[in-house]
Specification:
This protein is of the alpha+beta class. The protein is built from eleven helices and twelve strands. Bound molecules: adenosine-5'-[phenylalaninyl-phosphate].
């Protein structure tokens, strides 16, 4: 009798162990078969124990059977609750993850890149952290020259700067290509110690450089007009104003007609508040200085070229229909502002 009771005890123990390890319907069904199935442990007890000799034995087996049935019922309930909370109902409608969009500045950069690509300009990426040679000295700006003051440069070291313009790409490109024709845009981040409604300490510039035989100001004007009409619209006009840059000779500031007053400088006899004169400044340009060509290993007797460097955020602000009172908004993380675009 003792061994029989031990067998029943083992089955109870077995059941408790199995029940605590069940986490799926399949495991549960297997467990039911194992204990209560036709070939299960309970039926095996009836078949193998001497039930005819001792009427106590079937009683004990039936008590165990009822215990097993109760525990199995309880598990069935708790398992269905567990499965309900953890399973995925694939028929439910999905939750859309929040959708981002390309930032305004990235959109502008892509548009600018594509406009110049249509004219055959290849986009390069030159360093944002560069040596003084590429940034200034090689561009005909000697040490201690007052032209360095204009840019309020961040120096990381005596000889290493966070570039304040993308013009450092000019010499890199000449070294890379070695021989003209050269036709590149260098679009990248630039840094100056400036901050107000039209200046940010980090901003983007796009530099253009074209060097070949017999390149003249006419080509510069043609490329500028193509860009201005493609980016701003066919109604915008271009003008060149004499200016000075160390690395171009002659040098210009390029202006485009104001879209608010249509280049008149006045709206209903009142001065246009945006431009005051009918023109908005696009940025600097000029014919590459012979010293710069020489520094890049190109013979200025054989080749000539033009370069320009304009601000991405500024052209974005000047674009028709986009009125940004403060350029620094572009760098804010205010989604109410950014989501408009
Ligand atoms: C230059 O940086 C010259 N390297 C441009 C150049 C290239 C001239 C090739 C000749 C040949 P400038 O300092 O004017 O030029 O800057 C060019 C443009 O950068 C400005 O017209 C303006 O659009 C933009 N810019 C300058 N500083 C800032 C700033 N802090 N925040 C936003 N945009 C700026």
């Amino acid at each position: 009798m003792e061994t029989i009771e031990n067998r029943l005890k083992d089955i109870r123990h077995d059941l408790d162990h199995d029940l605590s390890n069940i986490h799926s319907q399949e495991e549960f069904d297997q467990l039911k078969i194992k204990f209560l199935g036709r070939q299960g442990l309970i039926n095996t007890l009836f078949k193998t124990l001497p039930i005819k000799d001792n009427p106590e034995i079937p009683k004990l087996i039936n008590i165990l059977k009822s215990e097993i049935e109760v525990k199995i019922d309880q598990k069935s309930l708790s398992l269905s609750q567990e499965l309900r909370t953890t399973s995925i109902d694939v028929t439910l409608p999905g939750i859309n993850p929040p959708q981002g969009s390309v930032h305004l500045i990235t959109q502008a950069i892509e548009e600018i890149e594509n406009i110049f690509a249509r004219l055959g300009f290849i986009r390069r990426r030159y360093p944002e952290v560069d040596t003084d040679w590429y940034y200034a000295e090689g561009l005909n700006i000697p040490k201690d020259h007052p032209a360095r003051d204009d840019q309020e440069t961040f120096y990381l070291d005596k000889n290493i700067v966070l570039t304040a313009h993308t013009s450092n790409g000019q010499l890199h490109e000449m070294e890379l290509m070695k021989h003209p024709p050269i036709k590149m845009t260098n679009i990248g981040k630039t840094y100056r110690r400036q901050t107000d409604a039209t200046h940010n300490p980090m901003f983007h510039q796009f530099e253009g450089l074209l060097i070949d035989k017999d390149i003249s100001i006419t080509h510069l004007i043609g490329v500028t007009e193509y860009f201005v009409k493609s980016y701003f619209g066919l109604d915008r006009e271009v003008r060149l104003r004499p200016h000075h840059f160390q690395f171009t000779e002659p040098s210009f500031e390029i202006d485009i007609s104001c879209d608010i007053c249509q280049g008149k400088g006045k709206i209903n006899d009142k001065r246009c508040k945006i431009c005051k004169s009918g023109w908005l400044e696009l940025g600097g340009a000029g014919m590459v200085h012979p010293n710069v060509l020489r520094n890049g290993g190109i013979d200025p007797e054989k080749y000539s070229g033009f370069a320009f460097g304009w601000g991405v955020e500024r052209v974005l602000m000047m674009k028709s229909g986009l009125k940004l009172p403060d350029l620094r908004q572009l760098f804010s993380d205010d989604l109410r502002f950014l989501k408009q675009f």
